[in-house]
């Protein structure tokens, strides 16, 4: 998006690469629920995220968390004085809050 509100398109009518990249992340199964869980509950242990998203297998959840970490949306925190590992949203991830709110509004109206 350019100027904050106008979607830019290439002249060959393809979708804006930034928009396409965003949906390749947010549109991947379970990513939206992981982000929503971390937005609503804050930093979480793996078992807590897994409990909140019960239909997602642990194997897939690990993959998605790694992908979101690689995208700079989630950070994995370890603590030197314990075996505790927590996942939380980065600033980039936290800035998805209004997007998720809008998705909630749309879902309430149409689903």
Automatic annotation (TrEMBL):
Keyword DNA-binding part of the UniProt annotation: yes
Keywords, in A-Z order: DNA-binding, Transcription, Transcription regulation
A GO molecular-function annotation: DNA binding
Pfam families attached to this UniProt entry: HxlR (PF01638)
InterPro entries to which the protein is assigned, alphabetical: HTH_HxlR, WH-like_DNA-bd_sf, WH_DNA-bd_sf
HTH hxlR-type domain location: 16-111
Superkingdom: Bacteria
Keyword Repressor attached: no
Positions of transmembrane segments: none
Protein name according to UniProt: MarR family transcriptional regulator
